[in-house]
Amino acid sequence: MIEPIAELRTGEKVRRSGSSPDRQSSGSNGSSELQRLSCASFNQDTTSLAVGGKNGYRLFSLSSVDRMDCIHQGVESPDVCVAERLFSSSLMVVVSRSAPFRMNIYHFKKGTEICNYSYSSNILAVKLNRQRLVVCLEEALYIHNIKDMKLLKSLLNTPPNPTGLCALSVSHSSSYLAYPGSVTAGEITLYDAVNLNEVTVISAHASHVAAISFNASGTSLATASEKGTVIRVFSVPDGDKLFEFRRGMKRYVSISSLSFSADAQFLCASSNTETVHIFRLEHHRPSQESPSWSGYMGKMFSAASTYLPSQVSDMMHQDRAFATVRLAAAGMKNISALSTIQKVPRLLVASLDGHLYIYNIDPQEGGDCPLVKKHRLYESADEGPAASELEVGSPSYAATVATSRNQDSPSSSSLTGYSEDGGAKRGELIPEHEFADGPLRLDDEQEFPPVSSQDT
Fold first, then answer.
1. 293/265: higher pLDDT
2. 95-100, long-range: CB within 8 Å, 24+ apart, which pairs?
């Protein structure tokens, strides 16, 4: 059994097997000359956005439409391919293409590294909530206790997952993990990351699954297949199908992200096309009004569908998009999220072309959503800061880890990691009082202390 290895020295070089650090081709993510970012991710409650690129990562606040404050710019890890923030805390998880098998956890306000872990092959995704941190490799998943980073479970020899597809629910009362459960079909394995046992296997699609996402309460799971034509929503933990939506019929697309609104009333889906779809999650009830021609025809179609082939019948019962967004261009990978900013429902689209697009949503009428703001997420040495697009906040708020830190100096020993079986010898990533019900607040001086490995 191959387990993750806690780095004993931050400067130690460990050789690992695995595929090339740069797994993404320009063909799958759009034109290479337009791709300015390597990754982008919203935090668990869509209050901030993390983006990574050749010069490190940047963290932005999403509290305003007209202004985006740069909370932190991390330069300690170049060429970042994974950047994840835990809610509104100072904990950042970063993976660099220069060492794609190693996960670094930073306290970005203090400018310190909490710990780092190395794995047997490239890290494709990292998911975290208040209880667990999950590391996804191509054929393995590692579940850690986020309080002390102790390894709780190794799920080895999982079905090949070259894109690192997985989702972790963020509810305080549950912690479900979803990942591909079959090499030949669109099955999803639902795993209880708290009790460490498999819950069920959901037969989501006929073809491989391309995107999955939990709602905020962890009671629903949205899925999309590689074809990208049908999106389904299942109940958790029993796996019953709740909704089915048709994204389109004319062409197959690559769904890049699925995201629920905070109230679980809406679901958005973005892809490699120029259209982002927003679906309303509501069950249609029979109308009690007087009969009409349209109502009569609807009943006729419903009755006729029972005699038609299942594929045709399913299409007749699939709901269409409630609202849509038209992007300026197609072909560039992006992620989308639904949020309420300044008391107005918004759709956020972060594109690897280096921009965040903000659209207004009419929750009553739907339809086409207008673009209200475009922000630039990257730095350009030639162009300088784009003040008209992006206003950067005060840098005094965030401490940046100096790139000139001597890795061989004695001080680097204070940044040692964890033993692979014992967790932290002292201290916790998150203080115990932060696990009480209510909003997660991790802004005190005692949060995320550096951790020393156990004596051997």
1. 265
2. 95/123, 95/126, 97/21, 97/22, 97/38, 98/21, 100/18, 100/21
